[in-house]
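Can't attach files on this board, so I'm pasting raw text. These are the components:
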Amino acid sequence: MLPTVLVVLVATTLAVVSPAARAASLYERLGGEAVVTRVVDQAIARVAADPRVNQSFDKVNLRRLDASIVVQICALAGGDCRYTGDDMKRAHAGLGITEAEFYALVDALRDALDEQGVGQREKNELLRLLAPMKRDVVTR
Amino acid sequence: MSGTPGARVGARLGLALGFAAVVGTASAATLTVEVASGDGTPLDDAVVHVYPAAGRAPTRPAAGAVIDQVRKEFVPLVSAIQVGTAVRFPNRDNLRHHVYSFSPAKRFEIRLYSGEPSEPVVFDRAGLVVLGCNIHDHMVAYVMVLDTPWFGVTEREGRVRIGGLPPGDYQLAAWHHRAGDESSTVRQTVTVGADVAAAVRIAVKPAR
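---
Top answer:
Structure tokens for the assembled complex are below.
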């Protein structure tokens, strides 16, 4: 009799503990696909319309670009996504992107995250995840 | 501007030379076709192809073809090739392209990085293949894959010459990308004895 009771107890404890023990991913805390999609659409629309930095976006399919960035953020931020696009080095090869252009997108992202109501902590966590891309993106 | 017309002429010259190599039969004739829109405006970039009225067209070894990407455009816009032709896609741009086709005659996608050669794509079924670029969505190219050795693409003045035709009755088919999909192909019969000319009208939508 005793072993059965133990097993039941253990099973019950696991069932109660596991959801609470699992911390929400950054992707969830950012607001998931809905919020991240709005953030990316807004940030890319802003840089694509900015004549100081938009030559890299000339004739580019922005809808597909936005979708690709959302998946990449989802994968990086612990969401349930797998990014199958090109790595950042290949994706930006030949575009001759400057540091100023890179930071223009960072600024646009920061503003979009604020406007979409993402918390300071989540915003900084996301920007920290994206920062190492600079060495592959900036080639001038 | 220098790369675009040069590449285009090169692709067509390749076709013309291909014909020159297989023609040479004394009795073969040349068919000159003039393609115009409904209002009589000459149409360049129309694909014209010819089949025997009875029986099948002889198969000929297919030479390779090339579709460049230059300044975020496919060059040439329109290609005609034989079934089995391997097409190379050199990327002349200093950025990547991602070519795809959803057409039933050939579905594929190929990532093309600047300065990196890629494997050619073999078009193994007849039919129209429409190409796009995932990254630059205005880019488009048309590849008509044909099971006949007698074909060409009209150039300025809407004219194309198709050589090496033995005397006989043929069905002449002409298609233009501004008319619609493959079902908009216009067909008419033509009898070839000596060198002969034909005129075709295709109803096309206005150029954008």
